[in-house]
Structure formats: C-alpha cells, structure tokens
C-alpha cells in the first residue's frame, strides 16, 4: 500500500493472489526516515477463487501402440487459487466435433495417457488442457495438435535392385514406402548384407 498518515491504523492490501498465505510488517516513518520494521504478523491466507491460468506448453506424442500421450507444464501451487485443484484434459480426432474429456486430480501431474485399441498410429488429435478447483472450472489452454503413437512400418520397401559399380562398391536402390503405410514419420532405411 501507499504510505499511510500517522492517524490511520488499518490498511487494505489489494491485488494479492487467491489462496496464498501472507505475512505483513509495519514500519513507522517520519521526515528523517523509516524506523525498524515490526515483527511479522501471523500468516493470513486469502480466500479461494476459480483458477485463472491454464497450463502452458501443452503438447505430447510418443508412447506405445494405441496410445495418445498428452503433456503440459503443471501450474505452481501459488496460482492454483484453492483446494481441490486438478486438470481437465480434452481431446478429439482432428476433423471431428465431439470432445472426449477426462479429469486428472493430481496438481503435480504433467501428463495423461489415453489408451484405446481403436487409435490409429500417428493420427492427429486436437488437444486442450483446462484447470479447476473447489470453486469451479477455469480456462482451457489454446488447442494444439498432438499425434498418437507411431508404429514400426508395416510394409517393406519394394523393387530392391543392386548394380555393381566397381570391384568394391555396389549401388542398392528401392521404391520408397508410401507415407500413410509407414505408421509414422519415416526416419530412414537400413541396408543389410546377406
């Protein structure tokens, strides 16, 4: 607060965070300067409020077959605004309109893994993560795209041929695997000798 005149013995401190413990000291001052601060007050907690800040860094990917892994940066305790804090994880296959929602009740949890045999490999999902506490639901993060887990390629390259270049070199060529059949981001090929 601003400096208070010497005849006032109370002050209202504003713009504090909800559900945070605070201690206060008072310093008397005059034209010469400030004196010693008082001993701290007892700790006082502000009242609870609905969370105001959604998780940041929402992303994901990876995992095992038939999994959608969603990750985020947990909200620090001083921004949870009350007891009963948790996350609402919402996701849907890209291009659909219905959100699938689940609740993660641990405030320290940084991820959620959805497992379902119907999840196709390397499929795009729209994902958002919201917050809640005993006072109600807060905002969701911006929607981001996360891909389901990849799988190993299900088909082998075709049209393999070899041509001798010299006494110590052979050129090997093949037809690339179609992208959709590769079950993920195709990182490369391995050529082995038989």
TrEMBL record:
GO biological process: axon guidance; brain development
Pfam family, one: fn3
Keywords linked to the UniProt accession: Cell adhesion, Cell membrane, Disulfide bond, Glycoprotein, Lipoprotein, Membrane, Signal
Entry's Gene Ontology molecular function annotations: cell-cell adhesion mediator activity
Gene3D superfamilies: Immunoglobulins (2.60.40.10)
Subcellular location: Cell membrane
Chain segments carrying region Disordered: 35-64
Name this protein carries in UniProt: CNTN3 protein
């Amino acid at each position: 607060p601003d400096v208070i005149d010497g005849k006032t013995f109370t002050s209202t401190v504003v713009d504090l965070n909800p559900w945070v413990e605070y201690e206060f000291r008072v310093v008397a001052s005059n034209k010469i300067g400030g004196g010693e601060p008082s001993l701290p007050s007892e700790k006082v907690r502000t009242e609870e409020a609905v969370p105001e800040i959604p998780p940041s860094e929402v992303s994901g990917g990876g995992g095992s077959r038939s999994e959608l892994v969603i990750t985020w940066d947990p909200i620090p305790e001083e921004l949870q605004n009350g007891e009963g804090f948790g996350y609402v994880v919402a996701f849907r296959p890209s291009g659909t309109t219905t959100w699938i929602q689940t609740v993660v009740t641990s405030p320290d949890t940084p991820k959620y893994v959805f497992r379902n045999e119907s999840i196709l490999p390397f499929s795009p999902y729209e994902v958002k993560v919201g917050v809640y506490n005993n006072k109600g639901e807060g905002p969701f993060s911006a929607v981001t795209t996360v891909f389901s887990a990849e799988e190993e390629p299900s088909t082998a390259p075709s049209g393999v041929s070899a041509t001798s270049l010299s006494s110590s070199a052979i050129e090997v060529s093949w037809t690339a695997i179609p992208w959709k059949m590769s079950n993920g981001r195709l990182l490369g090929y391995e050529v082995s000798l038989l």
